[in-house]
Request: fold
Amino acid sequence: ATFVISRHPAADARDETPRAQVYEPCSVDFTGSEDARLECVIDKAFVNLGGMMAERVGGLVSIEIVEDKVTALNSDKIIAKARHMRAMFDEINVDREKYLFKIPGTWAGVEAVQALEAEGVRCHVTQVHCLEQAAAFGRAGATVVQLYVGRLQAWYKRHPVHQLSNKLHEASNHGIEFVRQVKATFKTEGLDTKIIASSVLDRENALSLAGVDYMLLSDRVVSTLNNADACDQIGTGVVARGGNVPTVGEITQASFEAALGMSPAYEEIEAHLELLHKDEEALKAFVKTSVMRND
Reply:
């Protein structure tokens, strides 16, 4: 799905500036809490930006709330962060149906999603790379899981032994077959979790994925889809395509971790969290020198 920012149709009818667009300095109640104040400033900035986006787009806004490995492996920390951010969104009157919180595809993420979704906190699970991982989050009630078609295809070409263990060895495109398996598993088990197919490399991949709930496409791929009619090819997408579906039995933490180890999951989660951590540190440095110094 491509999200286009546009002016909210009701914006002209309002005389006052939406609260989400007003930055309010953070204060703390105890001495020696520079780190707490820094975290507050950054969280408030994310919430203000998320509120502004929610005012302007017809779809949902997805907010990253886990920026390091320590949090990604601790369900209590993930849950606490999500509740904290939800309370901040409530303060500026952002509809809870307008946003999702991004949760990494770890076992702690499964535990956090199960607790948060039970409270009505909608979760967008990222870095999902194997069927057991997808099934675990689907059973936990995740609103949406994100799969990575191009990355999976590239990884399995470099690791052919794991094509067999993940029942992908007969597929010409391992990423597209993985999406088909997840879609079929959710249908078979009656799970309501939606799928975002991302890392879609070209027009052919996009057409093969027809029927998936959402696709995240680059402008380049969208332009190739716009250049020629493809209605006669839609029927060959992942929903229409048949094929066996691997059985996913009971998932324990041990079986979950083992499945991650035979897929791109560990490598991808590690790389993703490392990048987020670097970005977070750069943001903190900027806020310290350019924001907190002046407020």
Q: What stands out?
A: The two ends are 38 Å apart (CA to CA). The first helix runs from residue 34 to 56.
